[in-house]
Amino acid sequence: MEKKQNRNGMIDLMRFTLSIILVIFHGGVGIYRLFNKQIVYFYGGSIAVEFFFLISGYLMAKSINKARNNNNELKSSYEFFKKKILSFYPAYFICWLVSFILINIFCYNGKKILLIHFFESLFELLLIRNAGFNGSRVMPQTWYISAMILSMLIIFPIFKKYKKYFEGYLAPLISIILLGFLCFKGGLTSSNLHLEYFYLGTIRAFSEICLGIFCYFLCEKLKMINFTKFGGGILINN
Question: What is d(CA 71, CA 181) in angstroms, rounded to the nearest whole number?
Fold first, then answer.
C-alpha cells in the first residue's frame, strides 16, 4: 500500500487564507459589476494566485525528486495528471454547473439558447480555455486552473526527463524571461489579455510554476549547508 504523504500544515494554512482572500475579492468585484456598488475588499487580492502557481511547481518538483531518491518508478504524465485533476474536478464541475444555471436564469433570462451556451462553455469545462479558445465564461475567475494544467502538461514530462538541467538552469531562465515579458505587456494581472495564440495568464502560470521548481532546488541546496544553530533556526523546513 502506498504510504500517505505527510501534509505541510503551514502550506495548508496559507492555501486556506489566500483562498478566502480570493473568494472575498472576486465576490466584491462581482457585486460591483452587477449593482455598481464599490465594495471591493482586498483590492489587488488576485496577486494570491502567484502563491498557487509557485506552490504547484514546488510540490511537483518535490514529488519527482522524492520518487527518484526512494528509487521508485516515476509516475507517468497520465497518472500524475489523473490524480491531480481528480483531486479538484468534482468540486469544480459542481460549481461550474451551478454557475451555468444561475447565469442562464438571471443574466440571459432565456434569451440565449441553452444548448448553444453549453457548447460555447465547453472549453472552460474541459480546462483548456486558456490555450486561447474563445467562448462563454461561466466561471472566469477560475482561468488560473486552466493555465496551471496546460502549463504543467508541458513542464512535467520535460522536467522529469531533463531534471538535472531543468531545475537549476532552465527553470529560472524561463521564469526570468517570461516574467519580464509580462511586465512589458502590462504586469502580472493582465491575465485576460489575448495574444495571437494564447492568453497572458498561461504565460504567467508557466513562468511561476518554473519559479516554484527553482525554489525547491534552492531549498534542497540550502539543506546541504551546515548552518550554525542560529542560522538553522531562522530557516523554515519544507
Answer: 39
Q: What is the mean pLDDT of residues 147-167?
A: 91
Sorting pLDDT into bands at 50, 70 and 90, what band is 206?
A: very high
Q: How far apart are CA 41 and CA 38, in angstroms?
A: 9
- The three three-digit cell numbers of residue 224, written as one number: 546541504
DSSP 8-state symbol, 88: T
Most confidently predicted of 20-24, 100-104, 110-114, 159-163 = 159-163
Q: Strand, coil or helix: what is 233?
A: helix
Whole-number Cα distances in Å, 52 to 91, 206, 224: 17, 12, 27
Q: What are the Cα distances from residue 192, in Å, to 41, 63, 143, 165, 185? A: 21, 31, 9, 32, 12
What cell does 119 get?
A: 457548447
Quickly tell me which residue has 502560470 as its cell.
Answer: 205
